[in-house]
Every structure is written in structure tokens, then in C-alpha cells.
Amino acid sequence: MNAWLITGGAGFIGSNFVRMAHERIDAKLIVLDALTYAGDLARIDDILTSSKVEFIKGDICDTELVQSIFKKHQISKVIHFAAESHVDRSIFEPHAFIKTNVEGTLVLLEAARKAWGDRQDACFLQVSTDEVFGALGPDDPPFNESSPYQPNNPYSASKAASDHLVWAWHHTFGLPTIISNCSNNYGPWQYPEKFIPLMIFNALEGKPLPVYGDGLQVRDWLHVEDHCEALLTILEKGSAGETYTIGGNNERKNMYVVNMIADAVDDITGNPKGTSHELIRYVKDRPGHDRRYAIDSSRLQRELGWHAMFVFEDALYDLVGWYIWHKEWVDSVRAKDYSNSYKKQYGDI
User: Fold this and answer.
1) What residues make up the domain containing 80?
2) What is the pLDDT of residue 344?
3) Which of 165, 189, 263, 312 is least enclosed, having the fewest CB within 10 Å?
4) Would you please indicate which residues are annotated as catalytic (active-site) residues?
5) pTM greater than 0.85 (yes/no)
6) What is the residue-averaged pLDDT of the chain?
7) Residue 292 per-residue DSSP state
8) Is residue 264 part of a domain?
């Protein structure tokens, strides 16, 4: 059986992809994850006993380990999710982002190049972000595959650097690579320091809802399952050397999302309407905070036939219920490295 190497497969997007690929794909899934604060095997524990899944705890910067995986398994595809990914953390800890996102990608590219040689039926899929393109003005058209790179924070700069490495390894060495750039993901199993689960759980627990600046920053929200469907489509139909942008076509202001979450929490829990809205607190904006992101997915739709299926408002309401039912999991991951990071970002509110 050929094998797919899925880095960061115990993380938020990676675990959702592993679960979907396990159902759909006839291949061995080698899940490599360092299990940092953001990785958790509980996300995929129900499929870890499957003969199609093998988990390896390890760092993508470990050259010897990565090369041994390629030697042991018939790796035909690399789906590279592993990354430090939280902008706020990158402002406080930029070195970790450069090491994992840049050096780790280099290690994987070199291992793939040595293992595959001139093989062109393989694929190295770099899962990247729209943040590498910088920020949009209120009337600018959405980012697409031709948008120039203009990263504005340490996280996006590290992802831009890793994208450039992937691009260079294709053009210099002929490595069959594809880059995908997605908009902001939301959905089940997301680490609770990220915007949507943070607001959900603070509202559920009666804690302040910290909103950066004026709260009018705009994000294009993509459900994680729509994203994973897009990645499977790219792996099946995409072409080496190409880039595909993936968006949910759901541009929403941050304050709109916070208000939706507050309404949903009050409705589901039976709070008097407006209870959670009273928890909203405006805090000092973070440095280099991009004002607007949006993605044009028309090429992916036109050429490969992918379309986003989730309706944002409906999915967000359902997600509040999902997190209520999975509070035990959230509490367990928050025990790892949550409090210190939260305090750095929002102070003592």
C-alpha cells in the first residue's frame, strides 16, 4: 500500500483531514506530529487503531527521523500541515516560528527530493495561508493565485518563506509540489486560543470577550471540512507547480462574529438575551494587525470543481453546541499552555 505522510496530523486542520482521508482514501496514513500545545491525539483517537493509520511522535526539523519515514514507507504524497500558526504567539516567540515553519519545511522538501528522485506521480502539498498576501483595503478585490506576497507579521513571514522554498524546490529540482493558500478556518477541534472557540468558551463561562481594536477587522471564514474537501480535490486533480487559493466566501467583521456567538450562547444555554453581549471588552489592538483578508476561489471551482458547502451562520450556531458537548476535551487542552499565552495577549481582563 502506498502511503501519505501527513505532518501536523494531530492539529486542528490536520486531524480533520486525517479523519476525512481515512474514510475516503485507499492509502496508509502516516501521521507525524510533535504534540506541542496545539497537537492532541484525542482528535483522532477513534481511528488510531485502524490498520490504515500509523502515528509517529516527532519533530519535522528532525532530519534523521523524517528521512527514516521516507525510507520505511512508500510515501507517495506529503500533506504538510505542521506549523506554528498563531499570529499572537509569533509576536512574542518569533524564533519558534522560523525554526518550525522554515527549517522544518526545508527538511521535508529535502527528504522528499532524495526519496522521489525524478518521480512525477508523487506530490508535496504545502498547506499555507492567505496571510502571506498581507492585508486588503475595504474595496480591494480578494486575493487570488496571482496576488503578490506581502507578509506583515512573523507568522505570515515564516509561512511566506516556506512557500518560497516549496516553489523553489519545484523549479530548481523538479519536485512535484503544489501550494494551497486558505482563508481563516473554523470548525470542530480547534485549539481554544483561536478567535471563534475563544469567544465561545469565554461566553459560556461568563468571562470577558476580548475584541482587538474596534473589532471591524474582516476575515473570510472557511469551514475546516470544506477546506479538507478542497485539499483532497487538489491532490486528485491539481497540477504540480501550481497554487490554489481556498476561501469560504464568507467575509465577516470580527464584531459581527462575536455578536453571533453571544446570541447563540444565550439561545442554547437559556441565558436572558443580551447576557453574553455584556461581556464584550475592547482591548488594545495587536501590532501589525491586518485589516481585511478575503480569498477568490474561482479557479479552484472552475478548473477542479470544488465548492464550499457550509453556510457560515448555520455552521457557527452548530459549532457552539459542538463545543458545549466537548467541554471536557477543551479543558484538557487548555491545561497545557493556555493561561500564560492568554495573559500575554489580553492582560488581566
Assistant:
1) 3-186+222-246
2) 66
3) 263
4) 130-131, 155
5) yes
6) 95
7) B
8) no
